[in-house]
Amino acid sequence: MEEARVDWMDQLGxxxxxxxxxxxxxxxxxxxxxxxxxxxxxxxxxxxxxVEELTKLKISLVYTMSVNGTVVCTARSKHCFLEKGRPVxxxxxxxxxxxxxxxxxxx
Length: 107
Known about the structure:
single chain; alpha+beta; Thiol Ester Dehydrase, Chain A; four-stranded antiparallel sheet; elongated
C-alpha cells in the first residue's frame, strides 16, 4: 500500500522528495485491511488507490489489491500532514495538490 501511495503522489507531481524538501510529511495515522484471498510471494499484486476523504489536515485512502483480476485485499489508510512536526493545512501549503486531489474525488 505504501508503494502504491508513493507512486500515486508521484503521479500527482508531489512525491516524497518534493514534499520533504518543503519540510512536509504525511505519516500514517491508521490502517485497516480486509484479506479476501491468500497470495504468494511470487504473485504480482495490482494495487489501485483512491481518495476516500480529504480535509485540509488529513487524507483517507482506499486500496483494492488484485491478482489476475481477483480481489485479494481491500484496505484503508489515514494520514495527516505535518510541517516540522506540527499540523499543516494541505490546502494552504500545496493548493495545487489539494485542488488536484479534490478534482480526482469528483471524477
